[in-house]
Hints:
two-stranded antiparallel ribbon, five-stranded mixed sheet
Amino acid sequence: PSRGLGDVYKRQVQAAGAVPTCYHAKLPAVDARPDTEIFVVIDQTTVFDHNLKQLVGNNLRPFLRANNAFSVIRFSAYTQGQYTELLVSGVLDPLIEPAKRNDISKPVLAKFDQCIANQPKQAAQSAGAALKSAFGGSTTTIGKSDVIGSLKDISSRVRQSPARQKVVLIASDMLENSAVTSFYANQAVRTIQPEKELALVGKNQLFGDFSDARVYVIGAGLLADDAKTN
């Protein structure tokens, strides 16, 4: 069968084994782009309580269905060696078109249907473990938080996704504290001038391009007990 962009992408992410494909030699994979890919992005310089962690997981779970893809990415301060890292990525297989099911033997179909039914659970386990790892490594002791630069880096991966729709869920306080600019002063969050900050982002070529993705943020403005310092 022909293999297009969706199939190439599927082979790339399945190399990690997050969600093994249900297709095999007797049941060649269909050439389908993922309907939606969700990117869950965790800022490890922001410490979340149990309820907010659960909220992130609850927002991810509905996307773990047939012909969707998911990625969990973490970041903190790349200027201090804490680079963005893809923790897990996977694609859930598309279903077989009803008209084509009649051409497939019942034993093969039964095995496929059982495999497909298990994929959301496998995806949830893999994504859940990645979220636990990301949140477990969160700390307020990292002196910097390169939110803007990290999100630009992550946006390049979002652009590469062939999914028809892209959703980016960012778990972060979104409070920049880098060599470019800082939203802190005197151990507290300062009042910023948006136009000035955007000009700095443009000057340093740090605008990301998320390729028409829908972007949501959980935790914006969240403050820890001890404010970060410069």
